[in-house]
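ok so i was messing around last nite and threw this chain in just to see what happens. nothing serious, just curious
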Amino acid sequence: MSGFVQEKFTAGRLLKKTCVPGSTIITDEFSAYGILDKPVKPKVDLSLLDGSELAETAPCYSHHTVCHKRYEWVAGVTEDGELIHTNGIESHWAILKRSRIGIYHSISPKYRPRYLKEYEFRQNTRIMPPLDMFDLLLKQSVLKP
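result:
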């Protein structure tokens, strides 16, 4: 199997596993994301519910693309009024890479998920007041199943 086909297959599985149908997803022009624009046949016959065939041909996601090859950094506005860009996720990856170089120096594959969960917690709580963040950290530590 070629690398291109493997990337498409992996990206499709990952997107289906992590993205809620109906979500707005903004990507760059990488071809593996094209799967987001393809219609997905539902597992049940929805035409029995409302008599329409539209549900069977509509894409599951609202997918917008930013084409960096054309020096495009913002590609308009979504239906919700949000700017279409990838700056946020690119910033997150840059911070994660810098933390590997500046703080951790080395991340073993065995503990990689823990480093990523720590980073995820830091990013998701970065605007919380410190005491609220500490309280949340303690609750998550004690209530862990």
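not much to say yet. Residues 1-5 have pLDDT under 50 and may be disordered.
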